[in-house]
Amino acid sequence: MNKKGLLIVISGFSGAGKxxxxxxxxxxxxxxxxxxxxxxxxxxxxxxxxxxxFKTKEEFQNLIDYNGFIEWAQYVENYxxxxxAFVEEEMEKGHHVILEIEVQGALNIKNQYxxxxxxxxxxxxxxxxxxxxxxxGTEDAQTVEKRMKQxxxxxxxxxxxxxIVVNDDLEECVQTVHGIIQCETCKLSNNKEFIEEITNQLNxx
Amino acid sequence: MNKKGLLIVISGFSGAGKxxxxxxxxxxxxxxxxxxxxxxxxxxxxxxxxxxxFKTKEEFQNLIDYNGFIEWAQYVENYxxxxxAFVEEEMEKGHHVILEIEVQGALNIKNQYxxxxxxxxxxxxxxxxxxxxxxxGTEDAQTVEKRMKQxxxxxxxxxxxxxIVVNDDLEECVQTVHGIIQCETCKLSNNKEFIEEITNQLNxx
Lengths: 205, 205
Known about the structure:
Structural class of chain A: alpha/beta
Strand content of chain A: 15-25%
Number of strands of chain A: 9
Number of helices of chain A: 8
Helix content of chain A: 40-55%
Shape of chain A: globular
Strand order of the largest sheet of chain A: 2-7-1-8-9
CATH superfamily of the largest domain in chain A: P-loop containing nucleotide triphosphate hydrolases
CATH topology of the largest domain in chain A: Rossmann fold
CATH architecture of the largest domain in chain A: 3-Layer(aba) Sandwich
CATH class of the largest domain in chain A: Alpha Beta
Oligomer: homodimer
């Protein structure tokens, strides 16, 4: 069986810990991480091809023109996009590809890839979300309020996801997301060929 | 959230290793195991309430009459059944209940409990199934052939299961089944209340 890999989209409120969950998934298991392209300047310590592919506006526009992104968006004056080639080549090889992406991008992807697995990571409560945002210590009070407002808006899109995973304990959350991906490969609809194979074997023996 | 527990039905070819998988699941995780009732005599080392609830034919018939089983069947001259009270009480408490049961019983249960999770455990190939049956050393050649024939018949029912799990490596198989159960609890349809809750919290804060 040479099955195509899955496309796994991970979203969640800012402060839900999805970045850490994705890092752990890549570190512990054999998933391929899609790296986004952006026109913003690299920050200190960022490596081209690791955090982002850093592109000029001309290069980015050229990729848009040639259908090089499965989704892209503009925030303030910068562009962000998911390169198509990597995602499709990896899936073709049978690798599961993880994308960490905002709710709007996630829905665009579901429209193009009906089998994409949409996973939403959330803290157990609004109170805990605020605690985490404040606890980071990197955001001022105004930014915390902005992120809470953003989360409030994003709740409307949660119903478009296939799975809701509560990130209460990091290790458990990583296990659960891994479990969801494994689980997908065991679904009856993904095993029709296997059933046919073992039925033939048992009939012939 | 006080959610009802799931009903998990595990079946598989004789020799697929489902008994060992179930034992490991109960040992490692917080699942409730449904113990069957039977009218057959206890074998050496078997404990009432652990391997089976041992009943007289009169007691068993009485339970049938009072709708005390969610499914029951007769093999040769003995009766086997799944007591209703334990399963429903555990689910009501929010515990996930595991049932190890044959294909026919599994389908009966799916007819009564639409949300039951049906998992079929299979070795990777017919050849491997035979190897395991022979390797056990407890069955004579005739019994091995009988079990292979039985497996051949059971392939027809595999399409009625929700998940097909290949038991190639025991540890991995146990992890996968555990993952499938966790995964079910994360499905959007099982999280509507949670979404409502966190939406309200974010709107009110």
